[in-house]
Amino acid sequence: MFILSWYFFATLLSLYNKWMFDPKHYAFTYPLFVTAWHMVVQFLLALTIRLVWSAQFRPVERPTRGEYVTRITPTATATGADIGLSNLSLKTIDLSLYTMVKSSALIFVLFFAFLFRLEKFSIRLVGVIVLISAGVFMMVFQAKAVNIPGIIMVLCASAIGGLRWALTELIMHKKAMGLSNPFATIFWITPIMGVVLFTVSLAAEPWREIFQSAFFANPLVAIKTIAIIALPGCIAFAMVASEYFVLQRAGVVPLSIAGIFKEVSTITISAWVFGDQLSEVKIVGVVVTICGIALYSFHKYRKSINRDVELDERGDPILREDDERRPLTSERHEYATPADYVTSPTGSGVPLHALDGPSQHVVGEDEDDDERRSGDGDGEHTPASERESERINRLRDEFEGWDSVHVGSDYESEADDDDVSRHREERVGGTGSRWRDFWNRSM
């Protein structure tokens, strides 16, 4: 259902934008201005959904100021640049060529997946990238009536789009940031996207000319223009939400398979509706590109069905540290805290040796200090190969519950180490500066 809705809204939005920006049709040739207002529409729709259905779509968690600046802002900036350049290119090239060149985004998606360790490097994937690159080259090679700046804009949008999806995957793995559903993600990233697009639009497009044009000649015409601008914002909201739901529930393989059919359909509909010319070279190029995308989807599918998955007692898959499906987490670091004790939630000191056993007995404060620090029995339950620092981190995490799966959690994985450190400082009292406290506050 979500795949069909994503396909429908994506195709509809492409055709609508082509009709709106094309000088031969509606001729509202200000794509950045329009796209910036789309962000306002999407933010208001996401806000409405969070208010009306708060129990389902308004997570308790909220990103901190530091996370918003360092993680959400780069993602939103890349998303805004991708959308803005894509719409800007539709002023200069036809929709079929745009769709063909934009399909090269998978090249950059795989590149950034390798860069951020979201995907394991393999020769097969490199071969797929080469095949898709050859197809894209054939699309634009010796093509007639090709606008070079338009193609460059689409390629830049594809590259930024690859970065966008890699960053989006990284932030959606962090449940503590409150981005656990598509509407929450749209709510937090669209303000930054709007700021970026409005800024670029002010610099690149004549706003005075826009409001003095025939599109705003009188109040009635202005209302009609505003409605025409707002409608694709609603379509874009439905498309993005459907896309996030597909990624959240099914993963990238069915999304890619649906994308293959969408690309072919968009090119066919564009040639039928707008009369875009499809030369033999373009047709061969798009076929080669789609074959490359199909091989990538087949590669991911075979890899998923041929993998032996271990199940726990509840029947849930156990993801190992070297499993590429495991959400990306940072490496463990040693904590600069006293090694002998862990502070309990009540504020009393708990010796580590009291936690290093099956009973996890909590020792009272009235025990002898020598007995506290003796560490008797540490070696009885601790593997010989385990270093002291690793044992300290393990015991601390087990005591505070960071290595356990919480019932009802959307992500059954260990908490990110920066979340562990932040919550630990909130509980035991961190020694950070006021600047750190400022950035660690929730939005």
UniProtKB/TrEMBL annotation:
<keyword id="KW-0812">Transmembrane</keyword>
<feature type="domain" description="Sugar phosphate transporter">
    <location>
        <begin position="2"/>
        <end position="297"/>
    </location>
</feature>
<feature type="transmembrane region" description="Helical">
    <location>
        <begin position="148"/>
        <end position="167"/>
    </location>
</feature>
<dbReference type="InterPro" id="IPR004853">
    <property type="entry name" value="Sugar_P_trans_dom"/>
</dbReference>
<dbReference type="GO" id="GO:0016020">
    <property type="term" value="C:membrane"/>
</dbReference>
<feature type="transmembrane region" description="Helical">
    <location>
        <begin position="28"/>
        <end position="53"/>
    </location>
</feature>
<keyword id="KW-1133">Transmembrane helix</keyword>
<feature type="transmembrane region" description="Helical">
    <location>
        <begin position="216"/>
        <end position="240"/>
    </location>
</feature>
<keyword id="KW-0472">Membrane</keyword>
<feature type="compositionally biased region" description="Basic and acidic residues">
    <location>
        <begin position="318"/>
        <end position="335"/>
    </location>
</feature>
<protein>
    <recommendedName>
        <fullName>Sugar phosphate transporter domain-containing protein</fullName>
    </recommendedName>
</protein>
<feature type="compositionally biased region" description="Basic and acidic residues">
    <location>
        <begin position="420"/>
        <end position="443"/>
    </location>
</feature>
<feature type="transmembrane region" description="Helical">
    <location>
        <begin position="123"/>
        <end position="142"/>
    </location>
</feature>
<dbReference type="InterPro" id="IPR037185">
    <property type="entry name" value="EmrE-like"/>
</dbReference>
<dbReference type="Pfam" id="PF03151">
    <property type="entry name" value="TPT"/>
</dbReference>
<dbReference type="InterPro" id="IPR050186">
    <property type="entry name" value="TPT_transporter"/>
</dbReference>
<feature type="compositionally biased region" description="Basic and acidic residues">
    <location>
        <begin position="371"/>
        <end position="399"/>
    </location>
</feature>
<feature type="transmembrane region" description="Helical">
    <location>
        <begin position="281"/>
        <end position="298"/>
    </location>
</feature>
<feature type="transmembrane region" description="Helical">
    <location>
        <begin position="95"/>
        <end position="116"/>
    </location>
</feature>
<feature type="transmembrane region" description="Helical">
    <location>
        <begin position="179"/>
        <end position="204"/>
    </location>
</feature>
<feature type="region of interest" description="Disordered">
    <location>
        <begin position="318"/>
        <end position="443"/>
    </location>
</feature>
<feature type="transmembrane region" description="Helical">
    <location>
        <begin position="252"/>
        <end position="275"/>
    </location>
</feature>
